[in-house]
Amino acid sequence: xxxxxxxxxxxxxxxxxxxxxxxxxxxxxxxxxxxxxxxxxxxxxxxxxxxxxxxxxxxxxxxxxxxxxxxxxxxxxxxxxxxxxxxxxxxxxxxxxxxxxxxxxxxxxxxxxxxxxxxxxxxxxxxxxxxxxxxxxxxxxxxxxxx
Length: 147
Hints:
The chain is α/β, with parallel strands linked by helices.
């Protein structure tokens, strides 16, 4: 990989491994408030995109190998991956390719101190710090917020 004047190539800070879109979208819907995103759209953020792509999900495919191939194709040297999004696949990626992947952990503010304990365990086990799953992260809820 080519390096910049800082001695580091391209770093992708939002890599996700191939996953079943239905499971991913179900998880995303939990934090949305509007009825359309929760009930009508195939892809919950469809309101932002025209013709959201249809994903060809192959459960037999090696998601780590697919991701590395895409990283190489686009010149990405290192990818930040979420251990909290999929611990098994992240563990394999970190074990087999420690120079290509860096671990992160997504904290859910709705979990309170249990969320902090999970972050501490992730730091102790993986050496990772907190990183939001999106620029805004999980939406905090309160007792007055309908779920």
